[in-house]
Amino acid sequence: MDFLRSDFTADGATGERGAGVALVHDWLTGMRGGEKCLELLCRRWPNAPLYTLLHRRGSVSAAISDRPIRTSFLNRLPGVFRYYRWLLPLMPFAVRWKFPAETRLIVSLSHCVAKSITPPAGVPHVSYCFSPMRYAWHMRGAYFGGRRGVEARLTETVLSRLREFDRETAANVAQFVAISETIRTRIREAYDRDSVVICPPVDTDFYTPDPAVPREDFLLIVSAFAPYKRLELAIRTCESLGRRLIVIGTGQEAAKLERLAGPMTTFLGWQSDEVIRDHFRRCRGLLFPGEEDFGIVPVEAMACGAPVVAYARGGATETVVPPERSAMPTGLWFADQNQQSLADAIERLDRTREQFQTVHLRRHAERYHPSRFLREFDDLIARTLRPATVRRAA
Predict the structure, then answer these.
(1) What pLDDT was estimated at residue 13?
(2) Which residues contact 28 (CB under 8 A, 6 or more apart)?
């Protein structure tokens, strides 16, 4: 990765190759969007220790795993990777690490409790926030809807306490960094804090078009199988239209989605980056039916020349450009999360496919190259550390 610059220092606050930096991540159970952000910071600071609730060996890249990894007591529970999401009420008790005396900077990457660590006195904590805790804040219905009676009251009691914990521990963060304007708004609503927006990196050196590979007549989904992703909407819509759909991914809703699917839907499970890139290069378009925080996958698809059909809320409204917004569009939005709205957008994609030119898709995606992410992150950390250095000197 040529875009990785020399070892970062900011007024002497971090040493060679990340000495003095501590990284914190919620859990390490697979290489999804958050882990791709973490991977780049691990390459930036290869000696920085990493603190995480859980680490499933072999589930993340060597750039992440080839360093000291400190896990929580949850990692010692038998068979924990089968049920760890149900341990949410215990997670606030599992992030109480003591950081070594040489720590000069803590960077957390968080969508759950990683941002809630307690830094040593005088040590700045920069939190790269994928979202305030979705389960407790704006997506409670997607995760816990349908509960009644005692179960519903107990769930809301737990979530209320989690929100209180989440709000209180926001005071431990010196600087919030949001992955999108959508998340900047959520941070303000949840914590009454402003943040700086730095969009996630997308490896546009790897995700590239291949002019020798023809487009085929199938639509594609690449996603974790979580409730808020709304994959069932895409499956039902493609089945009703008689459109071939290939789904790459896995997760807690796998059995449910496989029961729902018909003859037009093919599940491939989770695949390597090379296989995913091949499908981006061959698909007619990528479907993105959920309300996302940012959405790295649509940008990867666009980098390979595939247009995107996305729900018109959340991060996709910042990355997917419809024809109404530009003469160089990169995809389409659909307004409502129902089959008719998505079906209309898919049929419109068929009618207007000549509008989506690979050169325009590619140019748009290159705005998210990792060099931009590192430059903006380095600049922000330097600004965060500088006042502390001035105070020490005084």
Answers:
(1) 46
(2) 35, 52, 54, 55, 56, 59, 60, 64, 65, 69
d(CA 166, CA 157): 14
Domains of the chain: 16-201+369-393 (3.40.50), 219-368 (3.40.50.2000)
CB 84 within 8 A of CB 54: yes
Closest alpha carbon to 324 in 333, 316, 337? 333
CA distance 343 to 236: 10
CA angle, residues 177, 303, 224, in degrees to nearest 5: 65
Per-residue pLDDT, averaged over 295-314, amounts to: 96
State yes or no: pLDDT of 216 exceeds 80: yes
Please answer whether residues 105 and 13 qualify as being in contact, where contact means their C-beta atoms are separated by less than 8 angstroms. yes
Residues 333-365: tens digit of each pLDDT: 999 999 999 999 999 999 999 999 999 999 999
For residue 384, the model assigns a pLDDT of 87
Residue 65 burial (C-beta neighbours within 10 Å; 0-12, 13-18, 19+): middle
pLDDT tops 70 at residue 139: no
Query: For the chain, what percentages of helix, strand and coil (3-state, to nearest 5) are there?
Result: 45, 15, 40
**SS3 at position 78:** coil
The CA-atom distances, in angstroms, between 97 and each of 19, 28, 287 are 18, 17, 40
What is the pLDDT averaged over residues 301-313?
A: 97
Question: What is the structure's pLDDT at 144?
Answer: 57
User: Which helix (H) or strand (E) covers residue 107, if one does?
Assistant: strand 105-110
Q: Give the confidence band of 17 by pLDDT, cuts at 50, 70, 90.
A: low
How far is Cα 158 from Cα 146, in angstroms, rounded to an integer? 16
Cβ contact 291:313 at 8 Å: yes
Q: How many residues does the chain have?
A: 394
CA dihedral (89, 167, 295, 43) in degrees, to 10, reads -90
The CB density around residue 263, as the number of other CB atoms within 10 Å, is 8
